[in-house]
Amino acid sequence: MNLTPLLLSLHVLAAVIWVGGMFFAHQCLRPVAASLLEPPVRLGQWVAVFGRFFPWVWVSIIVLLISGYSLLFRLFGSMGHAPLYVHIMNGIGLIMMAIYLFVYFVPYQKLKEAVIIQAWPQGAAQLARIRFLIGVNLTLGLIVIALGSGGRYLA
Length: 155
Description:
single chain, mainly alpha, 0% strand
């Protein structure tokens, strides 16, 4: 049984969920929330939004790792035989995961605490950190998607 089509589909779906969610949050939801909502409501909204989105990111990361390395070894046999664009995708993906882990375990936790104790300036500072890091991850994710879809045609 050839699992490659299933693995590739799962890999792409996981990337779309993660990167698409970041694009929507960063480019669509954030500007509207900033213009319409007062800080206490806006910060509470982001805690709730991240509370729903971040579990999907965890699932996406697990699926990306399993499907990505499975595809790499099925298609190329080893890391040494993989083309350069695959190595770049892998490296950027690992950087994205490290950034996400930092966001989840540091500023997101501090944002939740700030909302609970109604420390709005501290919460706003943590949200700004998260926004910046999501912007970085979004940029990296778009690069990975471009490499994944067109990388084999670059050489």
